[in-house]
Amino acid sequence: MQDEFDTVILGAGAAGMMCAAHAGGRVLVIDHARAPGEKIRISGGGRCNFTNTGCGPENFLSANPHFAKSALSRYGPWDFLDLVQRHKIAWHEKTLGQLFCDGSARQIVEMLLAEMRGAGAELWLRAEPGAITHGPDGFAIDVDREGQRRRVSCRNLVLATGGKSIPKMGASGLSYRIAEQFGLSLRSTRPGLVPLTFGLADLDWITPMAGVAAPARVTAGQGPGTASFEEALLFTHRGLSGPAILQASSYWNETATVTIDLDPAGAVLPMLRGARAKTGRKTVPTLLSGPLPARLAAHLAAAAGVEGRVGDLPDAALTRLEDILRRRKLIPSGTEGYRTAEVTLGGIDTDGLDSRSLRARAMPGLYAIGEAVDVTGWLGGYNFQWAWASGYAAGTAI
Ligand code: FDA
């Protein structure tokens, strides 16, 4: 059985659905999952952090930092917010420009499905693409649709199956394989926005605080690739997590250190010095438990050997505490990997793609969008914004 379409989009995720809503002509979206937009559904703790009002090219990692500019400039956070408002989805700004649904993330999936229906796009779920060939008339794709073999032909083929993160949710790396088949090159991939793990020596310091969250500035990376993030840090039984760590993980490379400042405002040491100059009777853990969680305060004071009265502390002891509090260097043993990573760094090399249309330069009719491409955003709604913007760019170019 042969089905003819103008455009076939592989992947009914954020980017694929956005592209389908704008492509025009006969459009088919193919996905092997039972439901479309599963990552949207679970994102942002079920409320989907769907964009970030401060989104700019500087919030993305890519071998070509200029590549994302064109698509992001033609479909920005306000364009997506406009769509959300047209669909009467209530939203709020949480922090740092991050916009979330008031209700369920499912509303975003429903909105995109409605846009796709409005554009006349067809959706095949539980459908697995097989062999793909290219001839003078375009692409031919073998598809196993719920046990039935179908052959689909199209002029335009859009790769939108995302990266390798969360294989349990169907991440497969399919777009990378098809990109390579048609001559596009790949940048090596690694997990991003992922908790960091540590060896036994560091875990001795970390695990007594498992469950404690505190504001921190975390710095990772080397040379011009260094980045610092000031957000919450979470101690866990396996290592470190929380937004500050997830952000830094995308800049961390094996063997490098991460530096942790648990007093990003720089207010703790002046407070201790002030207390020492007054009565000096309170203990250091008691004073530290004002600005810091009590368990963290007690642990840091013990690690620096400053558990007694602040009035008895020599300057050297305060400096020791400052080093532990503000300049703790740790070497992660690794990350929790694709099992928990929110995104995949690397992917289809942008060198082979036109930045305006996301079209492959050397292969007529082939497009790549979303997380499959070597453009990875920070935590905070940037990755969805890239999915919307790149999906829109390809859809409107088709
Ligand atoms: P996406 O992964 O969304 O879609 C790919 C689609 O392709 C899937 O439907 C999949 O089933 C399908 N597919 C894969 N292999 C296939 C195959 N072989 N055959 C057929 N179909 C196949 N970002 C953000 O901006 N704000 C947030 O709040 C969050 N929160 C968040 C939470 C969690 C837990 C995760 C894992 C990730 C996030 N993200 C996020 C990141 C965001 O989800 C991600 O960047 C986008 O979903 C990427 O969109 P894509 O459409 O490129 O891929």
UniProtKB/TrEMBL annotation:
SUPFAM superfamilies: FAD/NAD(P)-binding domain, HI0933 insert domain-like. InterPro entries: BaiN-like, BaiN-like_dom_sf, FAD/NAD-bd_sf, RsdA/BaiN/AoA(So)-like_dom, RsdA/BaiN/AoA(So)_Rossmann. It is an enzyme of class 1 (oxidoreductase). The keyword Ribonucleoprotein does not apply. GO terms for molecular function: dihydrolipoyl dehydrogenase (NADH) activity. Its EC number is 1.8.1.4. This is Dihydrolipoamide dehydrogenase.
